[in-house]
Amino acid sequence: MVVSRVFPKKQRGMCVADGVPVVEPRLATTLAAVMRDGILEIAKLRLTKVGSAEKAQELFVYVVGNKFQTRFCDMADAVDGLKAIQKSARTWHENQWVKESRLHAQIEGRHREVNAKLQLIVKAGGSRKPMAIAV
Q: I need a surface site. Which of 24, 28, 38, 78 has the fewest CB within 10 A?
């Protein structure tokens, strides 16, 4: 496997050049994990060396084939789409949190002002005459 940022025209994500899988850096770990998992599964079969080599060749042919490349790139695009949606949602929530925090601060400030005025009125005692109420 080769990891590269440069691809042939009309290629992206993953392609096969001269029989070697070429992937973008963002996909390298995922492709390596897929290949590793396949190799481990082959090892679990406890085949003869010839049998293991045949299975490894089948795995490689699948990985460099069009069907795998298409599916692999589709998964990568879906992951990118999810990340974009999550980033957008996170930004929206962070902006909402800022707006809500400002409103909470405003409420708390006004509440303190009202309480302070109420305390002044209550502590001022009876020096003021009660207001007349019109009936």
A: 78
